[in-house]
What we know:
Layout: H1 14-21, H2 27-30, E1 34-43, E2 46-55, E3 58-66
Antiparallel strand pairs: 1-2, 2-3
Amino acid sequence: MTTLDYSIEIDKPLTDVYALASQVERQPEFMPDYLSCKVIDRQPERMLLERSAKIHGKVNVWQSWVRFLPDEGV
């Protein structure tokens, strides 16, 4: 299993950033190279997503679990 840990600093209130990032179906609107993102399964503490993105010129499709920690991180 692959685990990614990535962070950036955004000069906006955390509540605003979290509200946008947690709308996973909208992520292709603001994440470069993402083509789609849909929820496959919702559980109380996590979601299974199917995503597609153009990476190094090639379209890749994968599934991944995400956890949302309100006002802390995704």
